[in-house]
Design a protein that fits this description.
26 residues, mainly alpha, 1 helix
Length: 26
């Protein structure tokens, strides 16, 4: 399966994007 489709990777990406929004809300 593709690397990005792995649930743990999805969770990491989601957490990273949430952190980006918190750091730089725009």
């Amino acid at each position: 399966d593709p690397f990005v489709d792995r649930p743990e990777v999805r969770q990491l990406i989601g957490a990273f994007l949430n952190a980006e929004v918190v750091i730089n809300p725009s």
